[in-house]
Every structure is written in C-alpha cells, then in structure tokens.
Fold:
Amino acid sequence: MDVVVIGAGQAGLSAAYHLRRTGLEPDRDFVVLDHAPRPGGAWQFRWPSLTYGKVHGMHALPGMELTGADGSRPSSEVIGAYFTAYEERFGLRVHRPVEVRAVRDGQGGRLLVETSEGTYAARALINATGTWDRPFWPRYPGQETFRGRQLHTANYPGPEEFAGQRVIVVGGGASGTQHLMEIAEVAAETTWVTRREPVYRDGPFGEAEGRAAVAMVEERVRSGLPPQSVVSVTGLPLTEAIRSARERGILDRAPMFDRITPTGVAWDDGRTVDADVILWATGFRAAIDHLAPLRLREPGGGIRLEGTRAARDERIHLVGYGPSASTIGANRAGRAAVTEIRRALDREPATLSG
Structure:
C-alpha cells in the first residue's frame, strides 16, 4: 500500500475521503483499518443518555452533511448511522475489526504495519486512533481496598445504575459534569471532587476564542509535550443546565481527596465521605502505543508535530491528536495530512525514509 490509515473515526474518515479525492483507490493504494466492530468511531461506545441534542459542536464530515438528526436519540445511534452512510457513499471499504499491534521500520523506506489480518508495507501512515481506548485512571493510596464499585467514563452505563447509591464523581471536565448532573437526579448522595477549581466560560465561544484555544494546545505539541484536555484550555461552558446545577448545589466542588478507604475517601484534614461508587471521569490519553517501535516520543512524553507530521519521521502523520482533536480540527488535519503525503509520494521513495 502507499498509505495505511489507522482508525475510522472523524479524523480517519476525513483522511480517507481526501485520499480518494486525490485519485488513490481503497484496497489498491490505501487501506483504512479500524479496531471497532462497526462504524461510528468512539461515538458507538458512548452511554445511552448522551443524546445527540446534548452533543456540542459535532462538525460534519467533508462532502456529506449530517441533516435531520433526532436530538432525542442516543448520539451513538445518530453518529453511527451517519458514519455508516458516509463509508458507503464514498466507498471507503474500512477493514474491521482489525487490531494494529505495532508499526516498525521496514526495507526500502517502507513502514511495516503489523495487524491481526497480516502485515502491510506502507510508504506513509496516517494515525487517527484518538483516545477512547486509553482511559486514564489516577492512582491514590488505598485504592485497592475500596469495597464499592469503581468505574471510568469509558464504562459509564448511564444514571439508572446509580439509583439510591452514594456516588463520588472525580473530574472537572465536560464528562464529569454531565455524569454528575444525571446521577444527582437518582442517587442518594453525590460528591464532586476535582484537582483544580473549575473554570467556567460565560458568553459566546467564537472563532477567535477557538483559534486561541487551538494555539495553546498546538504550542504544547510543538514542544513535544502530551496534549492537554480541551476543558483545561477552554473552560466549561456556562450553560443553563450548569447554572441550574450550581444553584441547586449539585456542582459544589471539593478538592481532591488524599486517599481511598474501604468505605469511601478521606482528606488529610480529617474529612471523610462514604460512598458506594467512585466514578473516574478523568479523561483519556492518546492511543499511540503501537507506534512505540518508531521512537517518536520526545523527552517531554509527547510526539512533536510539524503540522500533522511527526518531527522524528516524515512518513508518519497524526490526525485527531492535540490541536486537531476537535471534530472540525480532525477534518482539517485529514486534508492537510493527505496534501503533504501526496507531495511525498510523488517524490522518489528513497526520500521517504525516516
């Protein structure tokens, strides 16, 4: 293959679309590999109570608008159906479920992409694996002693399972606040803890604000540091639902506890909270372990990018990573990566070695 695309979420499908637009054919010139069982990217794994009407800023894929969506339907269903139709319309022939185990240097300047369906030898690679497969679980003293249930946003089933229970929600991002507001309606008691005081954003979030937020994430990636979460840069939007929850005392934040006990959590100042459940809404990390043999990471822990291209290997492009993690950013990154890859493919293959 000329190009292997890993991942068929927003960024991967955008890249595949632009590869077709430049004249490359699926299964002849490029291949799209996806580990998920069906179309929909990470959206297919989202909890049922996250309806499409609650999704902020879902940007359409290039070449095909998402129209007439029912806001009351689960986002997993709406976006799953949209991605299915998109793959079919543009004939992207996504291979799934396929696990990518490792990417290594091969001969003649090619990359060896080792997968569950065999090994591909590619001249370039577009990595669009996102973060959903790498939930981040912080470690705290006593965590293994807790007799209740611990789960992560990645396994959040919706609020019904928490009826009548005492629930601690950990995390100050969009998922944490959404979980908390839902669970508070049915739980016996909720406690919200975050490492930092939440920052709320009042007023419109326009193009200028968006560019400024992207620039901050981009600076970290250029420095070889791992990308930050979106909320750490933009703050939480002060919606009517959040205003109401704050007024009712649901979003009454406590500082991070110091340890976990068999029956709950405790702070060094003597405060304790008993709980049946600890829900870790603590975010995700980039799913890029399969790229480890290429030694792309910088001392700061991240992969330094020049545009979408890995600074340490011009054959590798990361889309949906860092500044392109938003849905509109993923679209733009897919186009930018393909533009640069086409230029590289038109040169002598020897110039593609890392």
In short: The two ends are 17 Å apart (CA to CA).
